[in-house]
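Problem: given the chain below (401 residues), write out its structure.
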Amino acid sequence: MSNFVQRPDGLFVPKHLAERGGAVVYCDESGNSGPNYLDKGQPFYVLAGWLIPEDRVAEVSIGIERFRKAHFPQLPEFKTASILRNDPQKKRGAALFRELGQRHCVPLYLIAEKRYCVAAKVVETFLDPAYNPLVRDAITSDVKTKQEIANTLYEQLDPEELDQFASAYQQPTPVALEGALRSMSAAIDRGISEALARAMLGSEPQIHEIAAAEATHWLPGNLDATLNMPCLVSFLMLIENLGRLGLARPIRVAHDQTHAYQEGYKTIFQLHRNMARLFTPLPDTSVAYSRLEHVAVFETQDSVTSPPIQAADLLAGALAHCCRLAMPVQLPFADHLAQRRAVEQPREFAGLELARVHSGHSNTRIGGTPATYGEAGSTPLSIDAGTARQNSLAIRAASSR
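Solution.
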């Protein structure tokens, strides 16, 4: 614990965070394909950044600019593609990360696999009690059950079925969504669960209303149709959690300029900054959903004039590159990556628990425990997972299927 001290509130923190002070999180993204979840060349969306103490922003910026002039003097800014070009450049990028660690910068990141997010979107679209009378209202807040169903679709459903839904979702029309629903339900009925297939088909009579809802957007640039929006919210909650712990406050967030979505980003920030006070713990994570009280400012900056944004671009791009390298041919990515978690970190980060926000891929699947199957009919379908969630939809396939 030599690198840590105990604060008066009892929390052990790195020495340089013992005195509470302001900080700036500079962030950028990789794999931004908007509402297109089928981009084979970018299977992951990564939002990453560096938390930099306010009193070190100047020296960190000078250090990053020195790195650019030493290795890429011909470029106004360095990009991930330049760093990943060959092994010597990769080593230089790793050296920059170590230098940032020595200057007390903390890496933060979120990784979302787009194919898994398609499976999750299927659940949100066709098992929404607002448009499906066979689903009980309790599933709206039952994150564990929805994860469980999404995990099963992701792992057991033919990828072509998910692709058909993702394609329909890009331009949501009743015909396209109904075709995806029928095809997917038939595949689920054959190989996963009759009850789940029956429950999903409960949304078919409302397919026109579903298509209209999915085609209606309320954020500038149709940001609400992309992965960028929920990922930004999750990332802001991660930063808010650091402020709540007193590791830095107030916190300012500086995102790379993106003309298509930056106004939508600012709208999302203001919405969570001004909403009613709440604190909702989320399953499988220590990060809660809450009002933004410690993230005081959200702004966008030009990466050419902001060296820390360039470092954030490198972090996001390097993580996306590593994920693509780890991508298996057949196995679900999350399980495959679990075997590769022993990643060597710069020693400057040793002993510091780095907070991560995951895409929501928990370890539970349909088939975990026996279930009591309800009868489908004019009443809502309730397939119980146990007393803790007996009022929501929790579908599991019989192990013999």
